Amino acid sequence: MTFVRPIKRRKSQAIVDIALETALKRHSYGDLVCIDDYRPLENGDEMWHMGFASNGEFLATSLEGLLLQSGDMVLLVDKVEVFGRTPSEDPHRLEVAHPIGKRSFIVVNEWHDEAHKVMIGTVKWNALVTLAVILTNGRVIVGPNNKFFYPHLDSRLWIRKDKRTPLFNTMERQVRSKFDVKSTFGDFAAVDPLLNDFRTLPVMLKTLYEFKTDNAWSGLKVGAFVFHQLYNDQHKINKAEVQSCMEEALKQRKDKPCKILDIVGHILNVMAEEEGAPVSKEANKHLTELVPKLSSEIWTLNKDKVLPAIVKRIDEILR
Questions:
Q1: How far apart are CA 25 and CA 39, in angstroms?
Q2: Would 155 disulfide with which of 25, 70, 108, 109, CB 3.0-4.6 Å?
Q3: Cα(107)–Cα(309) distance, rounded to whole angstroms?
Q4: What residue ranges do the domains of the chain occupy?
Q5: CATH (residue range 15-196)
Q6: Over residues 149-156, mean pLDDT
Q7: Which residues have CB under 8 Å from 32's CB, separation 6+?
Q8: For 41-55, what is each residue's pLDDT tens digit?
């Protein structure tokens, strides 16, 4: 028998934030930022009280490059996605990050949708961290699942004083969309210009197809193609094109069963010859079924492709 020491979480009051400059000097990755470029984001800042609908883009670009400190750990937020609190702004709105007492905001790492998510929560909007570097140990985190940074409730935040050019590279709120609700396709995500390349951005439904551009058609590639069409500039899915891709995949599989192709078949049965976004409620139902079938591949690509590309890029910057 082996004795296992129970894990004890420290109370927020027990965590003391050391000086930011001291914290950044503890690891070479601290050289990725210059503290003179930042200002503290205090509890009374007007950003916390802005409405999401008219300020979503401003909030996203303002939070890009955010520094988040908890104790002696500092997180550099390289990609952040901002969501509204109301059903029309975000049908899957988060109910887990609400300010407490007189606080205008709260910083949490909550277990939600089978992932640990670092979020900033206000009364009117949430910000989700989907790409970050822990500057005090060099760990790079790709995607929303963050098991390495647990902020205390009174964590300190800094934002950049001046926006950089290019300001941002927006990506639609893919997994959190309802594909029959146009408002959920809003562009409210910002990334660090240093990582402004699809190879160093978290793989999402929109970009999954770009990582699957080999000649062979698989069920996964057909599923990725559907979302690629949905999120292209025209926001239209051509039924004949999807049907052709599906037939190629079925031919290569030699009639072996494939759950993804089954779902795509259901989509083809209910969609018009050219389905524009937002799609019909019937198509939305099957697109929602398709999302979790692609999520494991997205996770794998983030781990095996995107993460090494980010580490390589950061090493180049620090040389």
A1: 18
A2: 70
A3: 28
A4: 15-196, 199-308
A5: 3.10.300
A6: 90
A7: 76, 133, 135, 314, 317, 318
A8: 999 999 999 998 889
